[in-house]
């Protein structure tokens, strides 16, 4: 019998199953109200538009091309649409600044692969998107805390990274309605991160999958747009912007992108070539058609639904949460972050909550590289209707109240 | 301006553009007869079947599910079909032994990621599939030559790997109609590799994208089938079999698979989860439908076409190649491997050939990890019809004859 463990690379010891994805498998029971999965509501997908796009491509003269291998950088038609979308966000760029990826998760994997040697440092927020930690973990970096609210001296990060045997390669952050906190960085915080990255001569990874899902307030300019402004042109910037169609049109086609200086894009193209050759052309051509025709109207429709759910969840939290429980008020996205009174363990709470109240959420510890955050949890409002949100939060409030009381 | 080079990981220095894929971009000229691209003939894709499959899924009750995130191991329906296909090859397995990947290229990337630490050794054939070298390169291994025809003492490989600071993690090979040589390993050679791997306690990576394209002779049992037989059950084996739909039904959906012991599959699933979450469900569901209905008949049709092209190319080589030039006689697949007289550089020949004769091929050096093989080249017969093959090889024969003469 093969002793597999002895054959694995060192990095394999850092690969663990996502608590969230394992959870999702268990929650497929009709009587559980789940605020756990950070996924879009499938009822909202523009299935009809996709059906027509696939029929159009596969029934037309482009069928053979769509079923063949394609170029690693991505289909020109889709890259053109994405470049136009990015220009709409204040980033002057062309298709040469775009790499199409299999979801923005793949972009994070490739960015880790391109930049991180073992013992290098990645600056990340605490808590942060779990999938980013998982993607970067394969390249064995250290994680150091990035706090956009504080004026941290660069020299301190630099020294620590150097002592650990590497250097700071990038600052990773999700500036709009972040997963898991729902928080948005203001202009000053964004400028502070760019300035810190400048002092450290490192890159910035701007993960923006929720960017288009804003329900109130004015959009804040992307870090890449600010970077373009300061440095004069995209070719002079240090920011890699990761976008995604997963939260706007459909996650099922697995389509995302990186927008950055063409020099770094061309390196990422080499990585793409060696890792899966190319993202399916058929899906890219279908997405290009659907995005060209439906992006604006579909996103508007989606936002109206999610806004109502966010409002319902905020109202229900206000009504049903016991004293000492705090939560964020996201201006967009899919998530509300809850802080329980100290001493309450959200993972233990989940077991009680699913069993006694049939309500699910994600305990917050997994989002912290240092295993802190035991008293935090993530609620997603994207997949439950307003009625279920009110009922579910009421039930959750009772469970929390009981837990707090018995902990006293 | 950002100094990107100073930020890249050490592995980035090993990432180079594929000579072949760069070539392909230049060869899109109507008067060039290309034997360069190792890609299937797009005229043969079952577009109608795919059109119906996509319409069926997107017009039916499964649309929303197909457009949503999916499980990292792959859709159950497709894994069931694949497991059945593998059982047909003599490998007793179930869906738990299958990971669906974005083409078998992604399987190679994940296998490199799971097994290779820097300075570990991968045994590979010389020449070998360039894409495998590119995929593994990201994990900074050494390559050591694997010669299935020789009884090499394991202790020698082991000592060299150890001296280099790692160990032998796997033997990689493509046993059927290999890219680039077209050669097939016989039963004795396969058993020899399994036995070597046993002595080294390492894994075996069986890359079998062309397996179903046999035009003559009896199929040779896959290494995984032999391994199952010797070790009693798939759960006791050391072989990871990489399959692909790219050469049978379509490369455009980017669908391949790994078949192996469930213990190692579960590790690869974690890698998939962290690197791109999942392969598009929509494509997997479409492929399952097309494979269930059309695999056998479509592969039979494809084989008839490619067989005629292989026969035409072998006949044309016999007729037009000057003395001193040798080539393989593949029993299947897409490639014939040509050895030119010593001293002739195939890369230089390519320039002359494209310019003077409008015929293209791939110079063989890139397939050798040690940059040897300057006098070799790869011809692909999959994409040219019989008339073009005869005309192209006639033209190529003249160019080679002239080059040989002028080198004397």
TrEMBL record, chains A, B:
Q: Name one Pfam family in it.
A: Aminotran_1_2
Its cofactor is: pyridoxal 5'-phosphate
- Where does the Aminotransferase class I/classII large domain lie? 62-395
GO-annotated biological processes: alpha-amino acid metabolic process
Q: Which InterPro entries match?
A: Aminotransferase_I/II_large, Class-I_PLP-dep_aminotransf, PyrdxlP-dep_Trfase, PyrdxlP-dep_Trfase_major, PyrdxlP-dep_Trfase_small
State the UniProt keywords alphabetically.
Aminotransferase, Pyridoxal phosphate, Transferase
Top-level taxon of origin: Bacteria
Is Transferase included in the keywords of this UniProt record? yes
| Molecular-function GO terms, alphabetical | pyridoxal phosphate binding; transaminase activity
Q: What is this protein called?
A: Aminotransferase class I/classII large domain-containing protein
Q: What is the lineage of its organism?
A: Bacteria, Pseudomonadati, Pseudomonadota, Alphaproteobacteria, Hyphomicrobiales
